[in-house]
Amino acid sequence: MKELVVETDGLTKRYGERLAVDRVSMTVERGEVYGFLGPNGAGKTTTLRMMLGLIRPTAGSASVLGRPAGRPEVTARIGALIEGPGFYPYLNGRDNLRTMARYQGLPNAEVDRVLEMVDLADRAKDAFKGYSLGMKQRLGVACAMLGSPDLLVLDEPTNGLDPAGMADMRALVVALAEAGQTVILSSHILAEVQEICDRVGVINQGRLLRESTVAELRGAATLRIRATPEDTALAVLMRMAGDEGVRRVGNESLEVDLPASAAPEVVRQLVSRSVDVHQVTVAERSLEDAFFEMTGTTSTEQELVS
Amino acid sequence: MTAFLNSTRAELLRLRRWSAIWVIIGAGQALTLSFGYVFNYVAYKTGDDNFAEDGATSAQLLAELMPSAIPDVIISGLPMFGGALAMVVGALVAGNGFGWGTWKTVFTQGPSRVAAVGGSLAAVTVLVFAMMSATLVLCTGVSVAIAATEGQTIAMPVLSDLAASFGAGFLVLEMWALLGFLVGVLAKGPALAVGLGLVWSLVVENLLRGVGGLLSGVESVTDALPGTAGGSLAGAIVGGPNGTPGVLDAISGERALLTVAAYVLVAGGAALVVMRRRDLA
Ligand SMILES: Nc1ncnc2c1ncn2[C@@H]1O[C@H](COP(=O)(O)OP(=O)(O)OP(=O)(O)O)[C@@H](O)[C@H]1O
Ligand SMILES: [Mg+2]
């Protein structure tokens, strides 16, 4: 069995009447990049805060690196950027990191190392308050990497970055992961998670809906078929894939939950019922589709055939 | 212990580079210089006896400008402006961390909350010590210069008097700084803390003391307030009210010392307790 770096058990946080996090039980394994995925207000930041001991759970517990979350000896081994970088505006970037390095008892050389990693060394002498949003974000990530922590927790690290900055940030996370770094990365950008995460946890309205690999989440590939007359085609396809296995996509196409290998048989069946087949494509379901399905927010172009 | 020392070093690094802190310390020095020396010296030179104190003779005025009077000068301004400035320092150090999100960052570095907040309190204490030392150096320099200019023999104060005055002044400043720190923690920001703190220390306490003269019930309350304690401690050092606002003799020197020390411990302890358990959202 893989070593668990994070394990939460029924983690719950209530703010007055609102359940910000509702009985979340998740696990993060050593060496993986774990994507924490959810729309705005889903409870991602609140969960991560509890993992770091910044706030106390209303119920449940979180253990990090085998110990209760929030203990100093645990926090010392986590590097975190939670909901935006928090730095002294009057200090320059380097002095901000030097201050945090002192809290950890690290030498100044460590500061220069992480500044290089986020490509901020040439602006390190400028005051933090004069940084652009993206530079502030990068300084926050640099701070999280101080002292090469066992676990890196990055709450929406690409927030405010331009496309090049986002690509750099992803490359950085991928490079860290290749070196064996365990990373928890929260995001609502699905492409980002799809690209760099090994496993994802999907959270919505405080509930952890699913936890699995990206591939599992996306599910098998589907077939997209454009054929007329459509109602005959629909009947044929439903017989093959089941009533739930066929969806209408857009105005003309039907999406069928069948693998690419089923394409010849599907065409044969349709043709034998005198249906004109105009187009058959293999469509990989995107994480986005899976996500919208799970969170109940219907994506605009897709509805279940009923 | 290592965590506490690391935190203190970290906090000192960032406070040292904060211009707002230097502005406040500089303002304290300018006020001490003005009220302790400049105005009195001008009054002495122009011979206007009514300028500083009613009926003060030239000889008395000069005596207050001499090195032997340093113990009085370094503490006289503390109950009023010194305390107010120290309070602003405390409120800024603690309060800004919430809006800037720096408490959040600090609490994820590794030291326990008690170590981190304790380090911040220790750094504030170092600042207060620096403020007091700067005042001492300034007063020594200026009074020696005046003595030399006026052709007076330079007689230094008795060391024990100087130490007592320095220690009392340090305690009064520390009390106000930690009270400011606590209010900054409770208000989760510097603005409200500085505003309310100054209104309290400069206005409300004075008004209450005014009322207390009429109603004995109120007086027992005002005798326990920080302004009364700090003012009375200063008063005990200089030998009773010397005309400087805020220097009092409302309570005895010993009681004043105990009250000030109690405020230091309670304010620091309360700040630690509140921060230890608080949700940092
Ligand atoms: N301090 C607080 N007081 C009251 N409600 C809160 C507090 N912090 C969070 N919440 C509520 O908890 C819910 C989850 O918030 P959270 O910040 O965890 O969401 P998130 O998933 O990080 O969203 P985003 O993608 O916008 O960052 C929201 O409904 C939010 O309003
Ligand atoms: Mg968030």
UniProtKB/TrEMBL annotation, chain A:
Q: Which CDD domains match?
A: ABC_BcrA_bacitracin_resist
Keywords in alphabetical order, please.
ATP-binding, Nucleotide-binding, Transport
Determine the domain of life of the protein's source. Answer: Bacteria
Q: Where is the ABC transporter domain?
A: 6-230
Q: Which Pfam families does the record match to this protein?
A: ABC_tran (PF00005)
InterPro entries this protein is in?
AAA+_ATPase, ABC_transporter-like_ATP-bd, ABC_transporter-like_CS, P-loop_NTPase
Can you tell me where the transmembrane regions are? none
Q: Which Gene3D superfamilies match?
A: P-loop containing nucleotide triphosphate hydrolases
List, alphabetically, the PROSITE patterns matched. ABC_TRANSPORTER_1, ABC_TRANSPORTER_2
Q: Which family does it belong to?
A: Belongs to the ABC transporter superfamily.
The name of this protein is: ABC-2 type transport system ATP-binding protein
UniProt GO MF annotations: ATP binding; ATP hydrolysis activity
SUPFAM superfamilies assigned to the protein according to its UniProt record, in alphabetical order:
P-loop containing nucleoside triphosphate hydrolases
UniProtKB/TrEMBL annotation, chain B:
Q: Which UniProt keywords apply?
A: Membrane, Transmembrane, Transmembrane helix
Q: Which domain of life is it from?
A: Bacteria
Span-the-membrane segments of this chain are: 20-39, 73-94, 115-148, 154-173, 180-203, 256-275
UniProt protein name: ABC transporter permease
From which source organism is this entry? Nocardioides albus
